[in-house]
Design goal:
This protein has 179 residues and is an all-alpha fold. The chain has one domain. Helix 2 runs antiparallel to helix 4, helix 2 crosses helix 5 and helix 5 packs antiparallel against helix 6.
């Protein structure tokens, strides 16, 4: 159980740091960061498609009849290539995608605030406020997906930084409760 808690704590801290780093990137270089994310996603999706196609080709004949790896591999490959060929189209909906993740993350932070309240932490409400702020920024992104202007990227960046800092704070508080 201790190993599970230690690994969970480490995963939360790593994800919080990733949120903070991407938040800073969105603030410092919003256009570059948007294109970078789409390019990285395009490369990863393309590699998954190629992997599925190769998996199909290497499979035994009877396995080929049981799977749809060739068809799904081609579709995934084409989606990845679209990300790489038409990144501006994907960037236009990136706000909704990032907004959804930020909205979800804020909801989880809001839940953790009430966990802190259950542990009799007096300032649980501060974590709840940061969760609500992240939910607000995320909801804005979902409602305005084409607003992925540099100003919106800065707003998403601020939301990600707040969310990351809140995560680190909550991990610290929850860890100290179990010690």
């Amino acid at each position: 159980m201790k190993n599970f808690l230690r690994r969970s704590k480490l995963n939360f801290v790593i994800m919080a740091i990733v949120y903070i780093v991407f938040g800073l990137m969105f603030i410092i270089r919003p256009d570059t960061t948007n294109r970078l994310i789409v390019t990285i996603l395009g490369i990863l999706i393309t590699l998954v498609g190629i992997s599925k196609i190769l998996s199909h080709m290497r499979a035994e004949t009877y396995q080929r009849f049981e799977s749809f790896s060739l068809g799904t591999g081609i579709i995934i490959l084409l989606i990845g290539l679209y990300f790489l060929i038409k990144p501006e189209t994907i960037v236009s909906i990136l706000g909704a995608i990032l907004g959804f993740f930020l909205f979800f993350h804020g909801a989880i932070n809001f839940q953790h605030a009430f966990n802190l309240k259950g542990m009799d932490y007096e300032k649980w409400w501060a974590s709840a406020i940061f969760g609500i702020i992240a939910i607000f920024f995320g909801f804005y992104g979902v409602l305005n997906p084409t607003a992925i202007t540099p100003a919106f990227s800065i707003v998403i960046g601020l939301g990600m930084i707040i969310s990351g800092i809140t995560d680190i704070f909550m991990v610290y508080k929850i860890s100290s409760y179990f010690k």
